[in-house]
Amino acid sequence: MELDSVQDSQDLSELHKLEFAHSILGKRSALKEQELLPHLKELHQKLKELEQGAVDLESLSTVANDLTSTQILKNSSKMVTAVAACCLADILRLYAPEAPYSNLQLKKIFNFFVSNLSQFGKEDEDLFQYHFYLLESLATVKSFIIISDLDNADEITLPVFDEFFKAGSNPSLPKNVQVCMTDIMTQIIDEVGTSAQEIIEIILDQFVKHEKTPTVPSYLMAAEVCSICAPILQRRVCQYFSDILLSVSNAEGTEELEELRKAHDLIIKVNAVVPDLLLNVLPLVQEEMKLDQANVRQIATETMGKLFMHPESNISEKYPTIWKTWFGRKDDKLVHLRVRWLEMCVDIYKNHAESIPEITECIKLKLSDPDEKVRAIACKIIGEIMAGCDLKHIDKSLLELVDGRTKDKKNSVRVQAMKTMGSIYNEYYASIQENEKMAVQKLGWIPNSLFSRVYTGDASVLMTLQDTLLAYIFPYDEDDQQRTERLVTVVESLEEKQKLAFTAIIRKQQRFNDDLQKYVRMCEDEVSGMTTDHEETSNDEFMKYLAAHFADRPRTFNALRAFLIRKNSRDIKLLKNSIRTDHDYKQLYKSKDKLIANLNEDQAGTVEIFQAIINRACPLIVNKACITHLLKMAKEPKGRRQTALSQKALTAQSILKEISITYPVMYEGCLTEITKGIMNDKDNIAAEEELELLAELSKSNPGHRKYDGNLIKRLRSYVVDGKVSQANLASVILGNMKNADRSMADLVESLSDGLSLKTRNLLSTLTSLSQFALYTPQLLTPYIDLIVKFVEEDLLKTPTKSYTESNPEWVAYDKLPELSKQKITGVRLLVNYLTACRNEMEPEEHIITKTFSILWDLLERTCDGALTDNTNSAETSHLRLGASQAIVKLTHYEKYLNELTVPKFERLSYTLQDTCFYVRLEFAEFLMKGLQTEQIHPRYYSLLFICAHEPEESLLKQIRSFMQKRLSSLEIKQAESTVLDSSLVRLIHLLAHHPDFTITTEDLMVFAQYIRFFLSCVATAENVSFLYHIVQKIKLSKDMVSAELSDNSYVLSDMTSLLIKYKCKESSWPLNAYAGHVTLQSKLYKSLPPGAVQNETMEKSYLPQAFIEKLEEEERRKLGDKRARTSVVGANKRTKV
């Protein structure tokens, strides 16, 4: 016992005592600052020097007690309170782990600390040192742990967090202060265990306040606190979000939804900083994605999407069930949610490679979504995910599905699909141009696919295609050479059908350019005040015609009219200059851009339409500036061995030829270079490209071009001694030159004189004469009798022996024997002569009669006859085809119309049932092209229905598609003969006079197919009553060509009526009485006398009962098959989630 006392005495003697002789309290009132402050500073210095655990605590009791006095804690001097706080912090340090104060005193002391610490950032440098000392001491000693036993400790800790984060809003807050504040806050959370949710709010609020300035100390401290205390805060954060989400998730009001959106935004912000803090929060969001409330479900889905798309996110791996729930929202019943879901897939795809296969398959499915908005956005995001993507990661199959959407029924989808296809091609064009194998294989096909859309014939599709081509396939490029090389690269990649589409676009553009130039002249007349009332009406009609080229006709018409009545001379001139074909590329763009800028100022509503109008007419794809570069590319060496260089040369030649046909004015200034190529041909074996260009240019301006003597001499040598192709082209050039009717007379005479089968270069001679006949027919008039006689009696009567056992029905023209080519060319010569004489010249009647007699006789030359005679079968096919085409062409002119009687017209229809497929194909395509361009009479629509039994499905499909587009949308005009009714009337008349027509059941079933084919192409719910009325009118008429065959027409009339009824039943169309009046073709039918005769005819059924029964049985079977297919489809339908 004594030993312990001695030891304690020794320990006490080793402890340091505070030696402080001053009093810091006044006896009656507080000491003045100048007296008190030195004492406090001295005390602070002495306390600071004392070490914890090595001080006699009894020596501290007086100052410890005095420091809690109101005189100190409530002192008005900031310096006094700052130094006093430091002293109190030292007292707590020296007394640790116990404090020499009551709970009430501790509460006052810590509030005093908080008050001082709130001064950070507001004090001067002298005060800062004491405040930092206080902060550092509290952090190091962990003094705040003491308050864990206090009641309502949150009243102290809450202001601590509040004041620390306020101080942290100052960007210049020192780093060491931040560290200490962060330490204190983490100590409070870890050790004090405060339960105040307000602290969670204060911490999380920093991520909202300083989202745009994440380097601010408050943001950094909040992030650090959350990171260190994540395990403790997870439950509280979950409770915080749970309270918010539950309070507003069942409400649909605007304010509640805004609060919900704010909470989800905060979740996103927290995830970006401390994702671990959301461990228990994300399952709450997952449940929200399953709720029935659409707004809540969408907000939750968007939130998770943003979390998944973060580059450093691993949420999909940590929470696979949440990923699965989110992924299931792709089939949400809300369209806008499916759209938003797809939009979020872009960044997920780019930032998380592991998700690519799953997302890709989903996007493929969404391209077939029932809603157009979803399909459109699916197309859009494919373009976004492939932008900047490595070529090896591009999925060609995905692009092919986008390509399919360019044929979508909805315009919005087509627009986005084409934009995506075009933008991807544009982005990787450099690699394609360099002929990189992977780029060409994956993307080189895009222009080919886009040009295929030309064949839809839909105005909105063509407008979208036009915009896509100019924006992405042929984008703006001031470098003429690069732009020309791109043009060649694109055209070279096209297949033959798509090259025709490219040609069609250029030619449509040229025709619209002509029309728009006429519109410009209208505008100029309007400005000058020269427009009459009649012209105003005519102008409106013309503007309606222009507007018909666009999908939105009313809007286009209004834009054209608004520009017309605007009478702005400056802008009219700009419009004129923006479509001039003799301007170069930069001039066109400069005028166009200036015009659009001007319209934006006072006619903004018309800008989009006028942009489309100008693009339709402006020669931006091919233009004057590219001619020189194309000529250079076309001269690259060409040989038997196909190389990339020689292929580009051939493509350049084809483009040059098209420009010479469509825009010959662009060649002005380049003629010298073209003629130089012809003159440099020393051996008469080259220069065909130049000849071809010059020939086209000559045709564009006949009778006006003059050439020097040397060039004419060279051209004449081609005619006499050149190849057939050279003679042909040279004759075109010479026949169209100025004063050709005089200067070429001797040449034509020498070619015509003494024509015989032994004539040297007979094919070349006939070819040249054929061109002279077309362009200078007056030169051939003196010799035409001899030529006709030679063709008829010598050429066509000379048999062409077949030297092959197979003797095929068709071979290409180039593979025909020389004599066959001579016959074809001889016939063409006669046809060209009549063609050239159609207007001004009057050929002798016997020449017309003889030529048509030859043509009709050629239709009787059959392949069977050739096989029997052992003559060339393919020759007869070419001659039948050529004769058929010539008859159609010539009888389009008024002068020769009498040569096409009704029986002969019906005879012409048999060409479409020729034994040779190529004859049928070529003649059908000839008719379709002529009808589409209105170069032949609409009567020929009826001929095409004779193809109903065409065995080649591809040709039948082509004809059906053409007829559906051309005829089904035609308007029915009251009291007028229309294409629609005349086609049906002519078809029935054709069938009634067909040599195979009988009323046996078998034959009638065959003929029913013609009517079915017609109805499948033409009939709609809108016109079916009209068609039925036409058929009834036929039954009230008699055949004007052969009255004895009237019954055949009545049989076909009854058959058509029955088939129309079946069609209506099958399609659920009403068949109402047609109220209008129609007059049938007078050359075909004449009305029966009214009364008994008509009644008898109408009441009588001309169809055999056996046929009716068989037709009904067939229709029942078809209806049953249709119902069966419908039920299968219905069973396989899946309901969207």
From TrEMBL:
Entry annotated with the keyword Phosphoprotein: no
Entry-linked Gene3D superfamilies: Leucine-rich Repeat Variant
Organism: Rhizopus azygosporus
The UniProt record lists the keyword Cell cycle: yes
Positions with biased composition (Basic and acidic residues): 1115-1124
Record keywords: Cell cycle, Cell division, Mitosis, Nucleus
Protein name: Sister chromatid cohesion protein pds5
Single biological process term from Gene Ontology: mitotic sister chromatid cohesion
Any one of the GO CC terms: chromatin
Subcellular location: Nucleus
